[in-house]
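Weekly modeling sync, notes
Attendees: S.R. (lead), two postdocs, one rotation student

Agenda item 3: backlog of single-chain predictions. S.R. asked that every request posted to the team notebook include the full sequence so nobody has to chase files. The rotation student volunteered to paste the first one in as an example of the format we agreed on. Action items at the bottom.

Example entry:
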Amino acid sequence: MRKLRARWSGLAEGIDAATPADRDRAVDALRTFAILGVVLGHWLVTALTTADGGLSNTSPLAHMSWLAPVSWVFQTLAVFFLVGGRVAARGYASARERGDSYRAWVGQRLGRLFRPVAAVLTLWTVVAGGMLIGGVELNTVQTLVKLVLSPLWFLLVFAALTAATPLVSRLNPVWPLAVVAGVDLCRFGLAGPEWTGWVNVAAGWMVPYTLGAAWSHGAFARRGPALLLLTAGAFATAALILWGGYPASMVGVPGAAVSNLNPPTLAAVAFGLTQCGLALLLREPLARAMRCPAAWAKVALVNLSAMTIFLWHQTAMMAVTALGLLAPADLPGLHTVPGSVEWLAARLLWLPVFALALTVCWVAFRTYEGGGRPVPEGPSRIVARSHDRATAASKEITHA
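Predicted structure, as returned to the notebook:
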């Protein structure tokens, strides 16, 4: 164990030494927390049960409404869009300074997003076809495929906003926020058609994205605006839940009449403002924490495979659940109905198993994110530049 720690320390020191001095490590830390928050949140609030014969999707939030605060901790997509807006706006500005074309810039960024998607779609096309041929119930196959494809909506919205960065980065966040409020007024106040809510899929996530772009332009150089976001967002969220009739859960709950996330509601956007304000206030503490080589190396390596982790985490959970079906009885926290504290305790014990399965997926598919080679920007570049100092240590860790 001591030798393993020494090897990891060597790799961490190499990554730390190769990181440019002007890199904002707090931004990478926020992205890491956002991705891991979504992963852990899905693992906690998504349950595949055998209660109806085949595998069906449910949630502990549908059976234990008092768990709604869990969604406040792990629904971290607003922070991801905040960081994405900042990084994209800064990256586009740098590309223009270098004389790079918009086409080259956007192609590079979207390529990093979509390369891993091909591997997911290919594998699950084969798996779904094999299950249907093997006689698996159609409802079971539909449940599993829906869970796999559900993260892709987020990726499509993020890609669209990334492509629109030259325009969106000039937009005041108040305008998409006003659109969200108007859509909700139409849906809930004036009994308008439900389809109008899907306008908020773009407008709702545009709010934190434009905040990120404003951040890149120096809008949050002082703590005051971030503190205002935090307090105003928290007050608005509480008011909308307590007196506006919005659900307390910030994720969708099977069977609920209204979902705060699908499509995003004003409550979800207000909660996102709260998260963004908190994230901006945590910049300095995070920057100090990231001065530790070991902490920074972990963040850099997670960022290197952020899309791989995001796209495969549901597959990892489903693989463990499917293998568990080989047991002679339903396994608590894995196949049983999530309606008790005992289920929650058992599910927490399954999280390391899900993480192990995700590690297997990461080993198998991580190369697709970089297209088989280090990409020219972001944490991948940091790791690539540490090659001379850290390659030996990384090989030793891999084979330990």
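Discussion: group reviewed the output briefly. The chain has one domain: 2-399.
Action items: rotation student to repeat for the remaining queue; S.R. to check formatting next week.
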